[in-house]
Design goal:
66% helix, 243 residues
């Protein structure tokens, strides 16, 4: 034997030992069938999970855009109400306890958020001004009397909601407290308007295009915001050359 043959024989791997108990064809067939069943089971589970995820995603897409924020808000209200009841049972002042847990930075953020709640953007149009006033009046209203609400609902039936084909005139009776609240609100609005209304000096040379003082203020406000856009039309009307 040459040196090369001796070296090759020394590096060759030894043959694998024969199996002690070789598996029969039936046993191998059973193992393959078992693996196949496991694969079928995993495939069905994956298919079921995918189907459930598709249903959940479709349900999430049908929810409002602010659903998560509304859900968190509802949870916070429930937790806050629960903590308030626990504080009342233990005889603690919940508002004071809550303020002690708020840092100065968070308190400043809350205060800035309150100021941004209904910011005065100035006069843009009368629709926006009316909308801001409506929101301000709604926030100033007292809590809803749910007992009176349910009583009126049972009393008026379908007329309670005032549908398109329902005659509600003469059915509802205003309570004296509600009338007093409305009168008080109107008196407060008039007092506030008089407080912030400064007296302007009258210009005798100015054109008289109003019928009373309130109409004069209205016309001045219109001229302040739309005068530059309607100046030419106004001049044509005064000259009689308008088409």
């Amino acid at each position: 034997m040459s040196a090369t043959e001796a070296q090759g024989s020394s590096t060759a791997e030894p043959p694998a030992p024969p199996e002690a108990n070789p598996k029969t064809f039936a046993e191998k067939q059973r193992e393959r069938l078992q693996r196949l069943r496991n694969l079928h089971t995993l495939r069905n589970e994956a298919r079921s999970h995918n189907h459930q995820e598709v249903i959940a995603e479709d349900a999430r897409n049908k929810l409002p855009a602010n659903w998560e924020a509304r859900k968190k808000r509802a949870e916070w209200i429930l937790n806050d109400q629960k903590a308030r009841e626990e504080a009342a049972q233990s005889g603690e002042d919940y508002d004071r306890k809550k303020l002690l847990e708020i840092s100065a930075v968070d308190a400043e953020k809350i205060e800035r958020k309150k100021k941004r709640k209904n910011p005065d953007q100035g006069f843009s149009d009368f629709e926006a001004a009316t909308y801001r006033q409506y929101n301000r009046l709604v926030r100033s209203m007292g809590p809803k009397d749910m007992e009176k609400y349910e009583e009126d609902k049972q009393k008026y039936g379908e007329a309670f909601y005032g549908g398109p084909h329902v005659i509600i005139h003469g059915l509802h009776e205003d309570r004296p407290e509600a009338v007093d609240n409305m009168v008080k609100s109107l008196e407060n609005q008039i007092a506030k308007r008089n407080k912030y209304s400064r007296r302007r000096t009258h210009n005798d040379d100015a054109d008289i295009d109003y019928i009373n003082e309130r109409n004069a203020k209205f016309n001045k406000k219109l001229d302040r915001y739309y005068g530059e856009h309607t100046a030419e039309i106004k001049q044509n009307l005064e000259r009689g050359t308008a088409v």
